[in-house]
Amino acid sequence: MHRRRSALPLSAAALLLGGVPLLTGCGGETHPGAAAVVDGDRIEVSSVQARAEAVRDAQRSDPNGGQLIQLTGPLPRYTLNYMLRERVVEESARRHGVEITRRDVQEHRAAQEKQRGGPKGLEAFMIQQSIAPEHIDDALRMQLLIDGIAKAIGVGPRTPNADDVMNREFVETARSLDIDVNPRYGEWDVDLVSLIGGTEPWINPARTPQEPA
Fold it and tell me: Cα separation of 81 and 75, whole Å?
């Protein structure tokens, strides 16, 4: 039995990295080749690995890449965690009728690029959050969906215990989903709001161009 611990704060930025889906780990690999299955929809191991490798490649190309890699946790597990949280956010948005258009994302990206000193500044910031350049639009869309969900359920800057309200919303949404996780990626600890354990190794550390992949 897990000790009760407080949930993670769920501001729009933090939610993307610390959302609160309630997952159940499968006792065996009942879906070979799948990292997880959400309501019958497979998240392939290959998809998780490709997305994790995209992050690692972006880190390697960053001037501070060595430090970023040292600070990064197990990327496959982190990536799967992130992808599952995306599914929970999408489902919550669907339930509340929140829709985000491509134009919304483009406008949000332009604003973020201006704030970060241009496209390269935004890319550098996102790499620090373990978001590869090709997935920036996806991350920004998630931010907009979260903001829309908060508005739909009446959560604003002045809402008392806003993080707790958002926590409850996403836990409730996650409970409506049937999610199986491949045990190699660990198990879901509801109190920690995180995948824990697992045997999936870290992505290989930074290599020099002469080293083999």
Answer: 10
Given a contact cutoff of 8 angstroms between Cβ atoms, the answer to whether 33 and 182 are in contact is: no
Looking only at the bridges linking them, the beta strands covering 187-189 and 179-181 are unpaired
pLDDT classification of 177: cutoffs 50, 70, 90: confident
- Those residues with Cβ within 8 angstroms of residue 42's Cβ, 6 or more apart along the chain or in another chain: 31, 33, 34, 36
Rg (CA), the chain: 18
Residue 116: in which H helix or E strand, if any?
A: none
Residues 72-86 have a mean pLDDT of 86
Q: Closest Cα partner for 80 from 127, 25, 141?
A: 25
Which residues lie below 8 Å from residue 70, measured CB to CB, with a gap of 6+?
none
SS3 98: coil
Q: In the numeric block, which tokens belong to residue 129?
A: 């959050």
Write down the residue that tokens 């996780």 correspond to: 181
What is the pTM for the complete model shown?
A: 0.77
